[in-house]
TrEMBL record:
Protein name: Phosphate propanoyltransferase
InterPro entries in the cross-refs: PTAC
Entry EC no(s): 2.3.1.222
Molecular function as annotated in GO: acyltransferase activity, transferring groups other than amino-acyl groups; metal ion binding
Transmembrane segments: none
Organism: Novipirellula aureliae
Amino acid sequence: MTQTIDRVRIETLVREAIRGSLKSAASASAAAGQSNAMSAFSPPGWVDGKPNLRVSISARHVHLTDEHVEVLFGAGSTLEPDKALYQDGFYAAKQTVMVVGPRRRMLPNVRVLGPTRDFSQVELALTDSISLGIDAPIRHSGHIHGSPGCVLVGPKGTVQLDQGVIRAARHVHMNFADADYYGVKNSDKMQLVVRSKECNVVFEDVLVRADEKAKLEVHIDTDEGNACNLEAASEIILRKNECNCKDH
C-alpha cells in the first residue's frame, strides 16, 4: 500500500511540475512577444525609445508647380532628385533658378526643393531679402497671400510670381508620438534653446507642425543658425512654450 501511495504521489507531483513549467514558459513567451511588439513599434525618427531631435538650417530655396518646372526648364521637364532631405519623400533637386528682385537685384543658383507643389514659393532669410530689395514678410510655408513677388529665371524661360516671396518662420516637424512626448499638438508654439560658447540663444515661437509620418526636426534659417552658432552648439533643448501661445 505504501508503494502505491508513494507512486501516486510522485506522479501527482510530476504533473504539477510539468503544468507549472508550461505556465512559466507560456508567460515568458507572452512577455517576450509583448516586448518584441513594443520594440517593433518605433515612431519615425525615434532612437532607443525616445525622440531624436535634429535642428537643420533651411537655406534659401524655391518650391515650384509642375507648370513652372516646364516653363523654367523646358517642356516635359520634371524635378530631378539630387539629395534626399531628412523628412521622407522630400529632396533637393538638381535644378536651380535665379531669383530676381526690384531694380534687377538677383540671387543666382537658388536650389529647387521637391516634390512639386500646387503653387510656387520662394523662402529666404532676412539678409537674402535685403539683398534682393524685397520686404519679405515672416510667414509659415504656404501662407503667401499678400506677400511680394519676384521673377524666376531658368535655362529655358522665366516666371513672374505676383506673390510668394516670404521669410520662412521657424518651425518644428514632428509626428504624433513626438507631440505626445512633449505634451503639445499641431499649431502649438515651443521654445528652442541652443547653447554654444558665448552665443546662447532661446528661439521663441517655434511652430509645431505635427503629422503622422514626420520625424522630429526644427527648421531655422541661415541668419538664425549663424546667430546661435549652431554648428558649435554644446547643447540643444526643445521644450514646451510656457504660455503655449498659438496664432489666431
